[in-house]
Amino acid sequence: MLPKAEMVHWLFATGILFIGLCLLSEAIVGTEVWRRRPWRKYLWPGIAFTLGLLLWPVMAFFTNSAIHMYAHGRLKSRWWRLTMPLAFVVTGTAFIVHEQNAWFFARSAFLHHLLGWTFVIAAVVPLLMVWRPRSPALQSFFALSIVLVAVMLYCDRDVAPVFGHLSPLAGAPHR
To answer: Where are the domains of the chain?
Structure first.
């Protein structure tokens, strides 16, 4: 049986992949066409919210992390669009700082670094979307960055070699 950490990563990767595919679909057909069905505008935010709710028991019961939740009303200021690039930078930085081992220590260490730098670099796209929110190209790049993160999460394994290298300190590799 696969380790629990891998299965949890893969389940969340599936949700993130679905969000990315929804965003990509909206970018391809355009917002007007995508929202012809009223429920579609709530599809990816609803999935993101559900993933956030599902993340709570994972963090509380499996990692004993403290989770801070807050509620907010309807946000109308254009400056709130800066939260997504900021969230990308903070998330990327958290991935990089969280991993204490070098890139080639094990596959999980490599993926932490790769995910972190992907988020930090991809933060440019939502930052540009602050000024060009309806740009199909930017919407597509944003959606593809989410899909890329999902694909990376599917690659997660606790202890496995990366590019044929595994630190002797990492432990026995899993197959």
So the answer is: 4-70+78-167
The candidate with the shortest Cα–Cα distance to 123, out of 144, 149, 103, 145, is: 145
Kindly report, residue by residue over 72-121, the tens digit of the pLDDT.
Answer: 455 567 777 888 899 899 999 988 988 777 777 777 788 889 999 999 99
* DSSP letter for each residue of the chain: ---HHHHHHHHHHHHHHHHHHHHHHHHHH-HHHHTTSGGGGGHHHHHHHHHHHHHHHIIIIIS--------------GGGGGHHHHHHHHHHHHHHHH--S-TTS-HHHHHHHHHHHHHHHHTHHHHHHHH-TT-HHHHHHHHHHHHHHHHHHHT--SS--BTTB--GGG-SPP-
